[in-house]
């Protein structure tokens, strides 16, 4: 279920047309300048994906996964169709309403049930784990059994609507069912894991939406919680672990994330620090609560994953996937084999640039909770933010180099336009005394910026100890500005930083935009506003990529301004 929306969802006044147009069965156009656009957008965000966001009209797409996630999070077909009927400027074809309802109703027509003998739905011999796939009709089970890929995963038919399922096939079956548009509602029993009391620090007071997120996830024991960067995803996941009370494996993006998780677990729980282990390339501590990097899990030797056994070794009652939108493909394969474990994914965005959202849905679980960034800003949990795109004019030589460059090299040429270094200084001069981050992708573009500012540069080659020392100096005011490469996209806790300047990005990645904006959204002690700037080389591929990245900002309800560099 989603957090309550503070925007009044009232229909347009009598006689006025709504802000929504329906040019095709799966396409919605939101007229941004309409007085009811914000209220309409808040409802659309629960079930439709924003595809493009030019200045006056935003395009949303109705997709299977979007509608299934909405269904799993508690939305009903009637609520979604009501949104379309209330906000569309003209009549909504019955076929569209029927298609939306039929798609949402597909979730739950196939149910996985059962568990250990004694509490399962299917009889079996003592000691076995027994599962069943139950459908709502004989015809549907016939369809599944006759599909070659599914038939090989199902066991013998038990009655007209039920077939046995080997637990080893549970994950692969769910993946295939999503591909065939029959997403399974997995209600089978989950392993409790080894018990471990995890007390929360008495001084920790969960925010209302954090409690709601845990309460929305806990009954199923699987799925994804979507919270903005700065909204306390780590604390929410720790609260979920405390509610489960069992050995916990936390999978994170890298060493910096690992260190942050270790700090937060030590700070916000009553666990003995000796019970918390770190499992990475440098250290291999297997403890009741273990934090491991995705990188170590995907390390291979002789073509095999060296540390795959970690997923089973600790008798985990919960596996947490931090930044689940970045989950490597190899970890999907491992996750398919642990479907009897509780699973929690936390992320700021469900968008995956590799298109594997279906695997997140089937293997980690559906979206259980989502709260828009703007809602939390309006409630005071996130700093208010302004987002500005600054157009940079390349020199004649740079323009020519971009025109002549191979397609694969054009992003690099555009990202390293020389005028950017000087513009960063002018931007920071507009915010004297405010801690700032300068973020980019290409190191040869960041080096000149760091030199011009006289600021340290953090890259993947920077030793972890030095990196953490600079972050601490920025937190306590010893540094005014820090230049960081993409290694700082994730799990970087710098609450007082209020200015971020993005000098280059990774193509049109919306997930990267989410992470970078999130670096500055924690509320400031003095109530300062956050400012997010993106430098874009005019008439280059960067301009096209910027339009894609801005879809994320529009998705979250942020307005963004476009200015020329000479206006600074």
Mind explaining what this structure looks like?
The protein has 568 residues and is α/β, with parallel strands linked by helices. It folds into 4 domains: 20-106, no CATH class; 110-182; 208-371, Rossmann fold (3-Layer(aba) Sandwich), CATH 3.40.50; 379-567, P-loop containing nucleotide triphosphate hydrolases (Rossmann fold, 3-Layer(aba) Sandwich). Helix content is 36%, strand content 21%. The protein contains 22 helices and 25 strands. The protein has a 7-stranded parallel sheet with strand order 12-13-11-16-17-10-18, with helices on both faces. A 7-stranded parallel sheet has the order 21-22-20-23-24-19-25, sandwiched between helices. Strand 21, helix 20 and strand 22 (481-484) form a beta-alpha-beta unit. It is globular. The two termini are 43 Å apart.
| Biggest sheet statistics | 7 strands, parallel
User: What general outline do the C-alpha atoms trace?
Assistant: globular
Mean pLDDT: 86
Intertermini distance: 43 Å
Low-confidence stretches: 1-10, 116-128
> Helical proportion?
25-40%
For the largest sheet, list the strands in their spatial order. Answer: 12-13-11-16-17-10-18
CATH-scheme architecture of the largest domain: 3-Layer(aba) Sandwich
Coarse structural class: alpha/beta
In CATH, the topology of the largest domain is named Rossmann fold
The radius of gyration is 25 Å
Q: Quick one: CATH superfamily of the largest domain?
A: P-loop containing nucleotide triphosphate hydrolases
Topology, number of strands: 25
Quote the beta fraction.
Answer: 15-25%
DSSP summary: helix tally: 22
Q: Given this structure, which CATH class of the largest domain is correct? A: Alpha Beta
